[in-house]
Amino acid sequence: MGISNDKVIIFDTTLRDGEQALNASLSVHEKLQIAHAIERLGVDIMEVGFPVSSPGDFQSVQEIARTVKNARVCALARAVEADIKACADALKPADQFRIHTFISTSDVHVQQKLKKSFADVQAMAIHAIKYARRFTDDVEFSCEDAGRTPIDNLCRMVEQAIIAGATTVNIPDTVGYTLPNEFGGIIETLFNRVPNIDKAVISVHCHNDLGLAVANSMSAVQAGARQIECTINGIGERAGNCSLEEVAMIMKTRHELLGVHTQINHHEIARTSKLVSQLCNMPVQLNKAIVGGNAFSHSSGIHQDGMLKASNTYEIMTPESVGISKTKLNLTSRSGRHVIKHRMESLGYQESDYEIETLYADFLALADKKGQVFDDDLEALLFNIKQQDQQ
Ligand code: KIV
Ligand code: ZN
């Protein structure tokens, strides 16, 4: 896949790494709904399952491969022939597809989990990549637990994977252990030491165990990685994966500094986030960046006053840019008279309809009791004041 050097490929794995962490699995119909939303969002590649794992997974990969046309569809395989063959069979209905095969490379995984030598693992990886290339010319190879893999072994494995035919080589921080400068340093070392590195796209796949998945992915991009693997709302194993909406909006908002872009249709972000949250039964935390309920709401009086003067005082991107209709100014005891007048105006009242000092005093008394005051509460306060005036 030829790409310009300032384009970052977005590889969505909501339906594979994201789905594997859910309490209840999604039906084929639900997976199709999510796949089509992710397609509308404009991702380059979507990883949609692990076909060898179950007949249901195989069927959903097959259905998605049959109907998704505007993104490349990919499925996961361990570095064994049966898994790779299952991917090729399930993905066959797609015009073009990617097979993603992986094996662990860290000492702890190679010795404790696989009970093999590093040489055995290397041989399995090379065989798997060559076998996958029989079915497609788009093969991705992942060095599982790359973040904890000795750097000499990682360099050797990446070089061998590219020679064997991998067109994308993925560097996962499987357990979310690395720090941003450390992870960026690993990518930089690969670019400095692997002689054939420019023959493949270097991808990253970061988990969020220390809350660093997005920071690590961006650090890797600054070091030369050109594919980010991520999920909607950051869902995934344990503390989740790198969040798609966050990296997409970082590259849009800080484009001048970073010099890279994605092809994400950012206006679809809120809608896609809501669909995934509902179907996966995974509520999004209120203060989650970009898609949390409070991401574009302002509570303090000072901030609300600033927002009424110019929206860029406290917002670095507009809610409309991610598909949310407008900024919310929460009415709380920290809100000032200015925001109350503004809200009354948006509810259709003119200043001559009420006396601001009286309304504001009643509003503060109510806000102290109940926290957030809603539009209906404000209108009820006005109604009560009018009733009392008439007595
Ligand atoms: O976290 C991980 O290492 C993975 C690989 C299969 C890419 O999900
Ligand atoms: Zn993962």
User: What would the principal axes of the Cα set say about the shape?
Assistant: elongated
Biggest sheet: strands side by side, in what order? 1-2-3-4-5-6-7-8
Number of strands: 10
Q: For the residues shown, what is the average pLDDT?
A: 96
Ligand roster: 3-methyl-2-oxobutanoic acid, zinc ion
Unreliable residue stretches: none
Helix content: 40-55%
Task: List the total number of helices.
Answer: 16
Radius of gyration: 25 Å
Strand content: 5-15%
- The class by helix and strand makeup works out as alpha/beta
For the record, give the distance between the C-alpha atoms at the N and C termini, rounded to a whole number: 77 Å
What order do the helices and strands follow? EHHEHEHEHHEHEHEHEHHHEHEHHH
Explain what you see:
The chain is of the alpha/beta class. The chain contains 16 helices and ten strands. The protein has helices at residues 14-18, 28-41, 55-67, 81-91, 107-113, 118-132, 151-164, 180-193, 213-222, 244-253, 255-258, 269-280, 301-309, 337-346, 356-370, 375-390, and strands at 9-12, 45-47, 72-78, 97-104, 139-144, 168-173, 201-206, 227-230, 297-298, 328-329. The protein has an eight-stranded parallel barrel with strand order 1-2-3-4-5-6-7-8, surrounded by seven helices. It has a two-stranded parallel sheet with strand order 9-10. Helix 9 (213-222) links the parallel strand 7 (201-206) and strand 8. Helix 6 packs parallel to helix 7 (151-164), helix 7 (151-164) crosses helix 8 and helix 8 runs parallel beside helix 9 (213-222). The chain starts with 8 loop residues before the first strand and ends with a helix. 3-methyl-2-oxobutanoic acid is lined by residues 17, 102, 142, 144, 170, 172, 174, 205, 207.
